[in-house]
Input
Amino acid sequence: MSPSVSPSGTADPVSWAVESSMYRALAVLRVVVLLNAIGLGWYRRESLDHPGAAVAVLAGMAVWTAFVTWAYAAPQRRRAPLLVADLLVALVAIAASPYIKGDDLRATLPGFWVMAVVLAWAIHWRWQGGLVAATAVSVADLAVRSEITQTNYSNIFLLMLGGPIVGFLSGLLQEMARDRDRAERSAAAAAERARLARVVHDGVLQVLALVQRRGAELGGEAAELGRLAGEQEVALRALVQTQETSGAGAPAGQRDLAMLVTGLQARTTPKVEVAVPGNPVPVAGAVAEEVVAVVRACLHNVTDHVGSDARAWVLLEDLGDQVAVSVRDDGPGIAGGRLDEAAAEGRLGVSESIRGRVAGLGGTATLTSAPGQGTEWEFTIPKKGRS
Amino acid sequence: MTSTPQGRSPRPRPGGGPGEPERREIRVMVVDDHPMWREGVARDLEESGLRVVATAGTGTEALARFPAARPDVVVLDLQIPAPNGVEVTASMVRDNPAVRVLILSASGEQQDVLDAVKAGATGYLVKSASRAELLAALLRVAEGDTVFTPGLAGLVLGEYRRLSDAPAVPDEPDTPRLTERETEVLRLVAKGMSYKQIAERLFLSHRTVQNHVQNTLRKLQLHNRVQLVRYAIEQGLDDDLER
Output
């Protein structure tokens, strides 16, 4: 089914999905830094001025960690009030530290736990959010300290860098996810369009084929209409078959020779029937174009020598490292001796030029002909061209 | 493919020959979703003395009418409302291995044609073929011959190459291969030569050329059936198949 157009507005499921993953990772980080804070608090329990208050603050942090883990899990709850409250809780925990630990404060009670809110802001409000939250936490941290050591400065410096960087990456991830989503949507839409086109083309081809048949039977002016319908039928069928093979595509720098050769069916003089393998035949781009040009030259030759109502067949085979291409016509053919005769008279100019072009590709060309069997060119050409 | 009650074995028949007049009435079913086309083909065939026993516009209709209509030949479009031509071919050939399926396709989408042939169709024509060409093809398919276009021959050649290039699976020694002669014949078909021209070039009888061409399809169809059965067994569906 055709994908529906994405709903406009802020509701963007792709960004939500990215945010949700990041918040899940943040939840794990929060628990780790919480345990770290609790552990350090326990380790320094002797030096605390108010151990009771410390327990209360740490318990509060634990409850808050549990609450925000739940709260951040759903996109519709991730709004300004939650983020602001998260920041305020962190600031309060920092502000309570001098009272709990005494005036000679070397480390705040929540410690690294406060980085979680900075990252939460960064995820939601990108680098700007990360910067604002990091500044708020840093200012609060500096305000409660009696002296600022080299380590304090390093921690704050890292926090001020980390917030915006994570925010920037969050934005980048969301954009990439949206791009990928768009690409997937357009690929699905293209596939659906191709399917619809096939249905439509099939219908048109049916009608053209029918007009062609009936026209031929009715004769007169209808026969002319039938002939025109037949020409269009051939051209459209060649196009449909070409598009069908182009879907699989060829690697960079290469072209699908099967597709290019199939396109030759659109010619009306001579009438060409093409046989190719069902799968793409990737060949170096320049080689593919030259092969098609050589086949065109052969077909042109058929029109010149056999007539405009001549028929021709082109067969392409994939031999692994090489391709085999043959071009055959249903002309009267040439008797063995006549070929040499013609060459001697210098009348094989076109043939010599075809041979030369194939040799230029590092391939070989053979011309076979017999009376009543038509004339047939067969080329074997390395896919990479002359090495 | 087993020989059929009507004796339409793909092998040469002792008394059969091109000179023998057509005695038995050929029952034909025409499946195509375009009414105009379906009726046109049916009328052409009737006028040529064939008996059109049923027509259908969708895969479901075709399969529903198939058992009672008992056609000898089904003229089938590939692009029909589900189930598609490939599935219809497989289903009909499974129900009655004697039935012949002639694919008549407008666009001749390569993979579809190849799949239909692997599923058991023995003839393929594009719809722009003239009335005479269609009739000739239908008579030949009814005889048990295969009707190859150069395009189909190219696809079959490519399919054999793909199968032989695929990495060998240890428990799959039965990857079909063409003999040198079969490859030679198939290449000439792909170059647009008639069986008569091929027979002249290779110093073979017309019938031998035909047999070589038929063998190339039969091996592919057999391989396809083996693959399907193996898949069914792997999926634990073999109990259902035996029923």
